[in-house]
């Protein structure tokens, strides 16, 4: 079955420290991959997406992600986090069609 | 550019009552999506419209949920009758056109609590 897995439900990180949020997918077809961020009481906002080409994708707010086909992963990274990065982060994919399948989300908490 | 608008933002009802949510997508966006986001889970697609036609409603519980996009612009999602397990955030999203790589833009959602 095609799925998106976010292994960490919560990640606490000190301010100005680096962070990596993990995402793995399971699919027998080609995938497009997305990371969305959801701030409290707001809708989802696209951070970045991988469609094809370079496996390192840069997004907004200093985030980047690397597509690794052999590891079936699309981990999100930021070298130095800020208080304003506190939010829930969702990895998503469409598996051969237009429908987005989301992971269960990772809540990023920044510790001052 | 105005974003996706949704109303109401919050709704509390008792089980077996009916409720309706409204969504106005970004101007010019042909594709509209309704998602259900249960606490602790990622959003799950309920229905996708292309203009005023339904593209995918395979995960819409059709015995109680209905949705329409009559003029190909704004949309309404209805639940009748509501069950306790319908408590969730209902997100509307739109994209310029259909397609796997298209960015979906989300509204702020309607938080529904069924008592």
Note down, in words, how this protein is organized.
The complex is a heterodimer of chains A (112) and B (115). Chain A is mainly beta. In chain A, 0% of the residues lie in helices and 54% in strands. Chain A contains no helices and 12 strands. The radius of gyration of chain A is 13 Å and the shape is globular. The mean pLDDT of chain A is 93. Chain B is an all-beta fold and 115 residues long. Chain B contains no helices and 11 strands. In chain B, the strands form 2 sheets. In chain B, strands 2, 4, 5, 6, 9, 10 and 11 form a 7-stranded mixed β-sheet that branches. The mean pLDDT of chain B is 94. The interface between A and B is medium-sized, with 23 and 25 residues.
The run of helices and strands of chain A is EEEEEEEEEEEE
The counted number of beta strands of chain B is 11
What do the pLDDT scores of chain A average to? 93
- Structural class call of chain B reads mainly beta
The secondary structure category of chain A is: mainly beta
Low-confidence stretches of chain A are none
The helical percent of chain B reads under 10%
Give the strand content of chain A.
Answer: over 45%
Q: What kind of oligomer do you see? A: heterodimer
Low-confidence stretches of chain B: none
Shape label of chain B: globular
Largest sheet of chain A: 6 strands, mixed
How would the global form of chain A be characterised?
A: globular
Main β-sheet description of chain B = 7 strands, mixed
Q: What is the straight-line distance between the termini of chain A? A: 41 Å
Number of strands of chain A: 12
Count of discrete alpha- or pi-helical segments spanning 4 or more residues of chain A: 0
Question: For the largest interface in this structure, which chains are involved and how many residues does each contribute?
Answer: A-B, 23 and 25 residues
Strand composition percent of chain B = over 45%
What is the chain-wise order of helices and strands of chain B?
A: EEEEEEEEEEE
| Helix count from the secondary structure assignment of chain B | 0
